[in-house]
Amino acid sequence: MRLVVDEPAFGTAPHPPFRRLSPHANAQVLNRVHAASEASVLLDDVIRQQYWQGVTLVSSFGADSAVLLHMIAQIDRATPVLFLETGMLFPETLAYQHELALRLGLTDVRLIRPDPDDLANEDPDGRLHAENTDGCCFIRKTLPLRRALEPFGAWITGRKRAQAATRAGLELFEEDRENGLLKVNPLAYWDSAMVRAYMSEHALPTHPLVARGYPSIGCMPCTTPVRPGEDPRAGRWRDSGKVECGIHFDGKKWVHKPVALGVVGSFP
Ligand code: SF4
């Protein structure tokens, strides 16, 4: 899908001709270039230079999302923001999304919804999450995101090493092999104290569920509050063994392979 031409000829120029490089090579170069960069500096470079035929931020409008949304609003309010509206979100998240986008002046927030045919075929009563969380995430998150990412060459995420043991090796830039894109994680080295400090400094509103014990907020049926001392993501798919929804890799493999669904297909 994306340009994959050659491996990097690492030069001394700070910005090699990234469009000629594969996502893997891009990630290698940029992890060097931005090893010591502030998140906002890294983002400014990624958004303004437009190396990859377009960059988008994928945001859950969750507990920490205001940080990146605020940063991109300072750089370019027209930066596309993809919001996966699964149809299963907390009403508080929908209200927060509206409030935050308005306050920050974001002009291109795209609500990405599941395909109605997929829902009609695979989850007609909205109960798939109770029987097959992987299949539910596949039709409500993975497939819609895959379609929404098609016009872009790179996407920005809010993932952090400190969120969970499965993210401990996260880099600032990585290859998204499933979609053939570059993936950018500007907050990879941030912790919750840094997030809180940034939000306080910029007077950003907090997601209303944070005060009720939800440091990580996903869909309503699959998110519970977290107890003191637990991983921030411990309340996601609690006690199920599932740790990711399928839109992110853990290192070089799927964290939890989705079960194939008859109509919409499956992963290789
Ligand atoms: S998090 Fe739960 S409700 Fe949301 S898409 Fe995944 S399984 Fe379905």
How would you characterize the overall build of this protein?
- The chain has 268 residues and is an alpha/beta fold.
- It has one domain (18-254): Rossmann fold.
- Helix content is 31%, strand content 10%.
- It contains 8 helices and 8 strands; from the N terminus they run ααβαβαβαααβββαββ.
- The strands form 2 sheets. The protein has a 6-stranded mixed β-sheet with strand order 3-2-1-4-6-5.
- The longest helix has 16 residues, at 133-148.
- It is globular and about 45 Å long.
- The model is unreliable at 1-14, 249-260 and 262-268 (pLDDT under 50).
- The structure holds iron/sulfur cluster.
- Iron/sulfur cluster (SF4) binds next to helix 7.
The residue ranges in which pLDDT falls below 50 over 5 or more consecutive positions are 1-14, 249-260, 262-268
CATH C-level class is Alpha Beta
Provide the helix percentage. 25-40%
Task: Return the CATH topology.
Answer: Rossmann fold
Biggest sheet character: 6 strands, mixed
What ions, cofactors and ligands are bound?
A: iron/sulfur cluster
State the main characteristics:
6-stranded mixed sheet, single chain, binds iron/sulfur cluster, globular, 31% helix, 268 residues, disordered N terminus, Rossmann fold, alpha/beta, 8 strands, 8 helices, disordered C terminus, two-stranded antiparallel ribbon
Topology:
Blueprint: H1 23-33, H2 39-49, E1 55-58, H3 65-75, E2 81-84, H4 91-104, E3 109-112, H5 116-122, H6 128-131, H7 133-148, E4 154-156, E5 173-176, E6 181-184, H8 192-201, E7 249-250, E8 253-254
Parallel strand pairs: 1-2, 1-4, 2-3, 4-6
Antiparallel strand pairs: 5-6, 7-8
Helix pairs in contact: 2-3
The chain binds iron/sulfur cluster (SF4).
